[in-house]
């Protein structure tokens, strides 16, 4: 294990914003900031790409809210967000977005005697936990879903994202869709007012807090669940089936994505139909300006994203992310040619 990887893992365990390649950043490196959701796969892509090309990726894993702010301020070449911006918001900011990768947000717990996938939970009960209404693990609403499991009389400690994040958006969007009470009292956004629980920064921070807290539950991108060997829950989907988080269940949800008819690629994939679909599936998006100040930097970034689409699928799949389908990649490449230009209006990267 390299010193850099040890530093990244150490920072993640403390819930700190992590950065790919910061110590090795150079003038020719690609600069980006934003979502922690795709950080594990971006890290793998960055290592492989630098080995092949010598070009590094300086990516600050600071949350979707921070990524949106930084790209709007033009302090980075690209931003990353798990909450897609609406077409009107993109136009107002002079931005274009596209989906880069898809994955799943997973409820994970720290409960003695319970193993991964042993417990099932449904959306309405999960909403009540995060509204502070279900406070014990042996609550009747949980016990009914798990009649064969002896549940302990342990207090539930909900862990939530304290930073503005796309993971927050996906989770609250899902809960708002399955609970009218949650929708009216808390709602769906990158940052909400949680009535109960413990806050932690980033997927890294939430994963670490869950590991440290007896009775905890948190919502975390699946790669972090696997890396931290957390105990995940099965989740009842829109078809009424209890499903496990996996590349297959994320792919089942993603298969319903109609990117062709999604203006500005604005599409949220939570609670999709299908017996095998994972309910909290979402895409992570890249944001760039339509008129770039540094055409060379923009071209370098787009060349990296093109490589990731075409050569990074196996690396993505190894972390249980869902790569974008070839037909979507083709659409995105056309978007780059049509939408991203230098100061003279010339395409930065032609299709």
Give your account of this protein's structure:
Helix 5 (123-130) packs across helix 7 (166-178). The protein is α/β, with parallel strands linked by helices and 351 residues long. It has two domains: 3-103 and 282-339, Periplasmic binding protein-like II (D-Maltodextrin-Binding Protein, domain 2, 3-Layer(aba) Sandwich); 105-265, Periplasmic binding protein-like II (D-Maltodextrin-Binding Protein, domain 2), CATH 3.40.190.10. It has 14 helices and 13 strands. The strands form two sheets. Strands 1, 2, 3, 4, 5, 7, 8, 9, 10 and 13 form a ten-stranded mixed β-sheet that branches. A three-stranded mixed β-sheet has the order 6-11-12. Mean pLDDT is 91; it is low at 1-17. The protein is elongated and about 65 Å long.
Gap between N and C termini: 38 Å
- Helix and strand composition category: alpha/beta
Q: Can you tell me the residue ranges where pLDDT is under 50 for at least 5 consecutive residues?
A: 1-17
Output the CATH class name of the largest domain: Alpha Beta
Strand content: 15-25%
Mean pLDDT: 91
CATH superfamily of the largest domain: Periplasmic binding protein-like II
Total discrete domains: 2
How many separate helices? Answer: 14
Largest sheet: 10 strands, mixed
CATH topology descriptor of the largest domain: D-Maltodextrin-Binding Protein, domain 2
Order of helices and strands: HEEHEHEHEEHHEHHEHEHEEEHEHHH
Q: Any guess at the CATH architecture of the largest domain?
A: 3-Layer(aba) Sandwich
Helix content: 25-40%
Radius of gyration: 20 Å
Number of strands: 13
Tell me, what's the shape?
A: elongated
């Amino acid at each position: 294990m390299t010193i850099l990887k040890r530093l990244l893992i150490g920072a993640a365990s403390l819930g700190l914003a992590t950065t790919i390649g910061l110590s090795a950043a150079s003038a020719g490196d690609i600069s980006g900031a934003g979502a922690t959701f795709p950080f594990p796969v971006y890290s793998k892509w960055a290592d492989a790409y630098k080995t092949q090309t010598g070009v590094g990726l300086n990516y600050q894993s600071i949350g979707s809210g921070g990524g949106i702010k930084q790209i709007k301020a033009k302090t980075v070449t690209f931003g990353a967000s798990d909450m897609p911006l609406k077409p009107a918001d993109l136009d107002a900011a002079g931005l274009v977005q596209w989906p880069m990768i898809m994955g799943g947000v997973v409820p994970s717990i720290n409960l003695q005697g319970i193993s991964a996938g042993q417990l099932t939970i449904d959306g309405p009960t999960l909403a009540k936990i995060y509204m502070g209404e279900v406070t014990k693990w042996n609550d009747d609403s949980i016990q009914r879903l798990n009649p064969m499991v002896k549940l302990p009389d342990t207090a539930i400690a909900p862990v939530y994202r304290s930073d503005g994040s796309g993971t927050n958006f996906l989770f609250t969007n899902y809960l708002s869709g399955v609970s009218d009470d949650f929708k009216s009292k808390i709602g769906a956004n990158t940052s909400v007012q949680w009535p109960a629980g413990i806050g932690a920064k980033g997927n890294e921070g939430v994963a670490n807090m869950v590991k440290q807290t007896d009775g905890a539950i948190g919502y975390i991108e699946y790669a972090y669940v696997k890396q931290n060997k957390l105990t995940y829950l099965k989740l009842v989907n829109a078809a009424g089936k209890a499903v496990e988080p996996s590349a297959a269940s994320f792919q089942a949800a993603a298969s319903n994505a109609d990117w062709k008819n999604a203006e500005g690629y604005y599409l949220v994939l939570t609670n999709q139909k299908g017996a095998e679909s994972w309910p909290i599936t979402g895409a992570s998006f890249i944001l760039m300006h339509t008129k770039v100040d540094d055409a060379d930097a923009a071209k370098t970034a787009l060349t990296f994203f093109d490589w990731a689409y075409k050569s990074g699928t196996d690396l993505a799949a190894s972390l249980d992310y869902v790569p974008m389908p070839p037909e979507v990649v083709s659409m995105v490449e056309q978007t780059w040619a049509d939408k991203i230009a230098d100061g003279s209006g010339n395409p930065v990267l032609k299709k």
